[in-house]
Amino acid sequence: MIQIAVTGKPNVGKSTFFSAATLSDVEVASYPFTTIDPNRAVAYVTTQCPCKELGLKCNPRNSKCKNGIRYIPIELIDVAGLVPGAYKGRGLGNKFLDDLRQADMFIHIVDASGSTDEEGKIVEPGTQDPLEDIKFLEKEILMWVYGIIGKNWNKLVRKILLENLKFEEVVYDQLSGIGVSIEGIVKAKNMVGSRFDKWGKEELLKFLKYLINICKPMLIVANKIDIPTAEKNIKKIKNKYSRVVPASAEAELALRKAAKAGLIKYTPGSSNFKIINKDKLNKKQISALNYIKKNILEKYGSTGVQKALNKAVFEILKMIVVYPVENENKMSDSQGNVLPDAILLPKGSTPVDLAYKIHEEIGENFRFAIDARKGIKISNDYKLKNGDIIKIVHTA
Ligand SMILES: Nc1nc2c(ncn2[C@@H]2O[C@H](COP(=O)(O)OP(=O)(O)OP(=O)(O)O)[C@@H](O)[C@H]2O)c(=O)[nH]1
């Protein structure tokens, strides 16, 4: 399953974001992994389920479908203990970096309203610059990676030259534990441009910065947009960073709780909700809902929480959703479950990649694939598209 680390200094709303993202009124009881441990839980990305377009009633197994929206599980890791100097082991530094090691990317939550200082203490809104928090996290991660490879750098360079080794393979050996790839190393090296044996500390840091951006991409969630001072700061953050989603984790949590309690009808990510049980709401609750509607949903289009998850998976990690079926006429598995599984795959994946993702044996015995919508055989180098329904034909 895709793993996303949720990071940020204390009091920015990490736990609120985490609770909101992992609270669902879609029936999740059948998932044994809903709460993995206190710091890990299952959240969802959402996409249109093909059931609506095909006029079918689906019976999902690995995901859920509600009103034609497919909820596909991903794992969130709540990474606590980020304080300056984490890379030196301060605070829960090592735990923090260890969590990050496993993640495919991270969502960095900042207090866009500027009301928490660098240690996480509450201050007057608008007094703290959220850009400082972003720079600080980038530095922590960079120095952590530098700590792994920096002290041996000259030795490694000599080894590459003397033994005629490949740069990317030697660097990969050093850094594979933190989830980097050979392609990422080559790309980052090319981005620095100059010859690696001439690099000083500055170039090495530059290389590592590029490498982190490629292998551990970051999405910034500019939280607390319900506080007016956030607006100006969001412009500032967006001027400097391209991957930013304004959000109000608190508003999303309130809406999901109200939906779960049957008070409102609300689809995460949408720009509205409908009150269905007004009698059960008190004046304060109605006024809070009105505030959310006017100051968040109408102004920003959504609370940003679901948008952040979807952007992380579909835009930053570049995933697509493919639906494997065994019976291409009924769009079902062998037991008749229609569109049973929604599989997340990297863009550019081919039918054989899907086969391996379903099961190693199916991958090994792969023969060809059929596009179930068109009922035709597709070539083995066909690049799967988002929403494709595919039958894999394999030897027994
Ligand atoms: N106004 C506003 N407050 C929020 C929002 N999200 C969280 N908060 C508040 O910010 C405070 C801190 O939220 P938490 O979710 O506990 O923050 P955290 O980052 O997990 O903090 P630590 O557990 O200390 O690391 C709480 O009082 C939340 O109610 C938001 O979107 N808007």
TrEMBL record:
One of its GO terms (molecular function) is ATP hydrolysis activity. One of its GO terms (cellular component) is cytoplasm. Gene3D superfamilies: 1.10.8.470, 3.10.20.30, P-loop containing nucleotide triphosphate hydrolases. Keywords: Nucleotide-binding. It comes from the Archaea. Signal peptide: none annotated. Residues 2-267 form the OBG-type G domain. PROSITE patterns: G_OBG (PS51710). InterPro entries: Beta-grasp_dom_sf (IPR012675), G_OBG (IPR031167), GTP-bd (IPR006073), P-loop_NTPase (IPR027417), TGS (IPR004095), TGS-like (IPR012676), YGR210-like_G4 (IPR013646). The keyword Nuclease does not apply. Pfam families: MMR_HSR1 (PF01926), TGS (PF02824), YGR210-like_G4 (PF08438). Belongs to the RelA/SpoT family. This is OBG-type G domain-containing protein.
